[in-house]
TrEMBL record:
Native source species: Azospirillum brasilense
Keywords: Transferase
Taxonomic lineage: Bacteria, Pseudomonadati, Pseudomonadota, Alphaproteobacteria, Rhodospirillales
Pfam family, one: Acetyltransf_4
Protein name per the record: N-acetyltransferase
Molecular function as annotated in GO: acyltransferase activity, transferring groups other than amino-acyl groups
Residue ranges of the TM segments: none
Domain N-acetyltransferase: 1-164
Length: 175
C-alpha cells in the first residue's frame, strides 16, 4: 500500500468512496452526496490552506483518502485542524485508515498545527473511535442527538490529540 498526496485525477475515486458513506452510513452528516465539482472545490480549499489531502493506493487503485481542514473558521482557531478519512468499503480493517491518518497527522504537525480534532459521526462508529484512540486521540466530548439521519437521532463524538508541541509552547510564527 502506498500513501501519497492526492491528484485531481483521484477525485472520481474519492467521489465513489464518499458517495457510498453518505448514502449508507452515519459517519458523515451529509445526506446528499456532493458533486465531483464540489469535491474538487473542497480539495482546492484544503490545499490552498497548506493542509494535506492524501490517498491510499493498493495495486494502482485508490482505496481511501484523508485530509485536514480548519476546525473552525474564526481566526483564533488557526492552529487547530479537523481530520476526515474514508475508505472503500471492501478495504476496511486492514491498516489503511491508520496509515492515512498517520500521514495527515505528520503533515499537519510539520505545517505547525498544534491540535487535531475528530468530529466522529455516531457514538456507535467503533472503527473510527478505535482508529483515533489507537493514534493517541482522547475523548473530548459527546454531543448527543445533534444529527438526524435514516430516521434516527445521531450523536457526534469529539476526540482530540496534540500535534508537535501542542500547548507546551507558543507557535514559532504567529500567523
Ligand atoms: C474509520 C476507518 C477510516 C478506519 O480505517 P480502517 O482501515 O478500517 O482501520 P485500520 O485497519 O487502519 O485500524 C486502525 C485502528 O482502528 C481500530 N479499529 C479498526 N476497526 C475497528 C473496529 N471495528 N472496532 C474497534 N476498533 C477498530 C483498530 O484497533 C486499529 O488499531 P490498531 O492499529 O492499534 O490495532 C474506516 O473504517 C472507514 O472508512 N469507516 C467508514 C467511514 C468513517 O467512519 N470515517 C471516519 C469519519 S470520522
Amino acid at each position: 500500500m502506498n500513501i501519497r498526496d492526492s491528484r485531481p485525477g483521484d477525485l472520481v475515486h474519492i467521489e465513489a468512496i464518499y458517495t457510498h458513506h453518505v448514502l449508507t452510513g452515519t459517519a458523515s452528516f451529509e445526506e446528499v452526496p456532493p458533486s465531483l465539482e464540489e469535491l474538487a472545490r473542497r480539495r482546492d480549499d484544503v490545499l490552498a490552506r497548506g493542509m494535506p489531502y492524501v490517498v491510499a493506493e493498493m495495486d494502482g487503485r485508490v482505496i481511501g483518502y484523508a485530509y485536514a481542514g480548519p476546525y473552525r473558521l474564526r481566526t483564533a482557531y488557526r492552529y487547530s485542524v479537523e481530520d476526515s478519512i474514508y475508505l472503500a468499503p471492501d478495504c476496511m480493517g486492514r491498516g489503511a485508515g491508520r496509515a492515512l491518518l498517520l500521514a495527515v497527522i505528520d503533515r499537519c504537525a510539520m505545517a505547525g498545527c498544534r491540535q487535531m480534532i475528530a468530529v466522529i459521526g455516531d457514538s456507535g462508529n467503533a472503527p473510527s473511535i478505535g482508529l483515533h484512540r489507537s493514534l493517541g486521540f482522547e475523548p473530548a466530548g459527546l454531543l448527543k442527538a445533534v444529527g438526524f439521519k435514516f430516521g434516527r437521532w445521531v450523536d457526534s463524538v469529539l476526540m482530540q490529540r496534540p500535534l508537535g508541541n501542542g500547548d507546551a509552547s507558543s507557535p514559532a510564527e504567529h500567523r
